[in-house]
Specification:
With about 100 residues, the protein is mainly beta. The protein has a four-stranded antiparallel sheet with strand order 3-4-5-6, with no helix packed on it. Strands 7-8-9 form a three-stranded antiparallel sheet, with no helix packed on it. The protein is globular, with a radius of gyration of 13 Å.
Length: about 100
């Protein structure tokens, strides 16, 4: 299979809605914001990519980790979009996706 793809399926119809090549390497984690507005993905490339979920276009990239990002979690606040990331470099970061 192709582990660098994210496929978005309709829960109502079962239809495939989008296929996104989000990274060049294996996807390690993904998360959807509490507001359902953003999708965050990460790979062995140490980069976090942010996708807007209405059209699934790339709206941002986050860099700062020096080794692969292993965990992505949006904090549970529907009024803002804070993303927590952890990495094999031993660090955790909190990102404000709204800015």
């Amino acid at each position: 299979g192709d582990d660098s793809l994210v496929k978005v399926w309709s829960s109502r119809t079962g239809d495939l809605l989008y296929t996104l090549r989000v990274h060049e390497d294996v996807i390690l984690d993904l998360a959807i914001s509490e507001s359902n507005k953003f999708l965050a993905t990460t790979s062995n490339d140490n980069i976090i990519r942010i996708w807007e979920t209405e059209t699934y276009r790339l709206v941002g990239t986050l860099s700062g980790h020096t080794q692969p990002v292993t965990t992505l979690t949006f904090l549970p606040d529907p009024r803002s979009n804070w993303l927590l990331s952890t990495s094999d470099d031993g660090t955790s970061r909190i990102w404000n996706i709204d800015n």
